[in-house]
UniProtKB/TrEMBL annotation:
This is COUP transcription factor 2. CDD domains: NR_LBD_COUP-TF. Keywords: DNA-binding, Metal-binding, Nucleus, Receptor, Signal, Transcription, Transcription regulation, Zinc, Zinc-finger. The lineage of its organism: Eukaryota, Metazoa, Chordata, Craniata, Vertebrata. Residues 47-273 form the NR LBD domain. InterPro entries: NHR-like_dom_sf (IPR035500), Nucl_hrmn_rcpt_lig-bd (IPR000536), Nuclear_hormone_rcpt_NR2 (IPR050274), Nuclear_hrmn_rcpt (IPR001723). It comes from Xenotaenia resolanae. Residues 1-19 form the signal peptide. SMART domains: HOLI.
Length: 284
C-alpha cells in the first residue's frame, strides 16, 4: 500500500470517529502516582477504589451516547450506522487506554503491542456495555457479502461468527455488569503479558493484578449477596477471544478501511490522540 493511500485510510477512520467529540466528557491523562479525590463515585476510601475512579474518568464519553443516535426509526441499525458505531467503540478503546493510570507511562512500543493484541476484546466489552444492537442482515451487508457472489459455506461461516459475537455480548448483559466492573475488566484485558515483545513483563503483570484486585474488592463491597459474582466475571474473559479480531474487522470495518488491518491503524490512533484536529463529521 502506498504511503498516500495509507494516510487516506487513516484519515478516513479518524474523521469518522470524530463524531465522538461532540458531547465528550473531558478527560486528562494520569501519569505515575495518583491520589484519591473528593466525590469518589464508589464512596469507598481506599487505594484500589481510587484506581477504579480514575479508570471510570478515562472513559471518553457516556455509554448512552454510543448508539442512541445510530438507530433508525424501526430500531434497526443501517450499514452506515454500524460503521459509525464500530468506529466510536474502537476509538473509545484506544482513547480510554491513553488516559488510564500507568498505561501512558509504558514504553510506546509496549502500548502499541498491548492494544494491537487486545483491541478486539475491548471492542466486544464496549459492545456489551452499550448494548449494541446486532442484526444479521446489516452485518452481512457490512461484510461485503451482498456486493459479490457468495458460497453457501461462506454465508454459514459468517452467520456462525455473528452468533458467537452475539453470545459473548448477551452473556455479559445477563450478568448486568456495571460501569466500574467494565472498567476493571477492560484493564485486566489490556494489561496482558501475552503481548509479544514487552519490555517489562513483570510490570505489566503487576498492573493486571492490581486491576484484578480492584475488581475483587469492588465486587465484594458492592455485591455482598453475590459471593460468586467475581468468579463469574473472570470466567467471561477467556471466551472474549473466541471472537477473533479478523472476524470483527470483516464484520464491522471492511466497508471503512478495506483490506487495511486494524492493527495497522491502532498505532496511528494511539499516537495521534488529542493532538489530532478533530472536525465533526456525521454520516448521512
Amino acid at each position: 500500500m502506498s504511503a498516500a493511500l495509507h494516510q487516506f485510510v487513516v484519515t478516513s477512520l479518524l474523521l469518522l470517529v470524530a463524531a465522538v467529540q461532540r458531547g465528550r466528557i473531558p478527560t486528562q491523562a494520569y501519569h505515575g502516582q495518583f491520589a484519591l479525590t473528593n466525590g469518589d463515585p464508589l464512596h469507598c476510601h481506599s487505594y484500589l477504589s481510587g484506581y477504579i475512579s480514575l479508570l471510570l474518568r478515562a472513559e471518553p464519553y457516556p455509554t448512552s451516547r454510543f448508539g442512541s443516535q445510530c438507530l433508525q426509526n424501526n430500531n434497526i441499525m443501517g450499514i452506515e450506522n454500524i460503521c459509525e458505531l464500530a468506529a466510536r467503540m474502537l476509538f473509545s478503546a484506544v482513547e480510554w487506554a491513553r488516559n488510564i493510570p500507568f498505561f501512558p507511562d509504558l514504553q510506546v512500543p509496549d502500548q502499541v503491542a498491548l492494544l494491537r493484541l487486545t483491541w478486539s476484546e475491548l471492542f466486544v466489552l464496549n459492545a456489551a456495555q452499550c448494548s449494541m444492537p446486532v442484526h444479521v442482515a446489516p452485518l452481512l451487508a457490512a461484510a461485503g457479502l451482498h456486493a459479490s457472489p457468495m458460497s453457501a459455506d461462506r454465508v454459514v461461516a459468517f452467520m456462525d461468527h455473528i452468533r458467537v459475537f452475539q453470545e459473548q455480548v448477551e452473556k455479559l448483559k445477563v450478568l448486568q455488569v456495571d460501569s466500574a466492573e467494565y472498567s476493571c475488566i477492560k484493564a485486566i484485558v489490556l494489561f496482558t503479558t501475552d503481548a509479544c515483545g514487552l519490555s517489562d513483563l513483570a510490570h505489566v503483570e503487576s498492573l493486571q493484578e492490581k486491576s484484578q484486585c480492584a475488581l475483587e474488592e469492588y465486587v465484594r463491597s458492592q455485591y455482598p449477596n453475590q459471593p460468586n459474582r467475581f468468579g463469574k466475571l473472570l470466567l467471561r474473559l477467556p471466551s472474549l477471544r473466541t471472537v477473533s479480531s479478523s472476524v470483527i474487522e470483516q464484520l464491522f470495518f471492511v466497508r471503512l478501511v478495506g483490506k487495511t488491518p486494524i492493527e495497522t491503524l491502532i498505532r496511528d490512533m494511539l499516537l495521534s490522540g488529542s493532538s489530532f484536529s478533530w472536525p465533526y463529521m456525521s454520516i448521512q
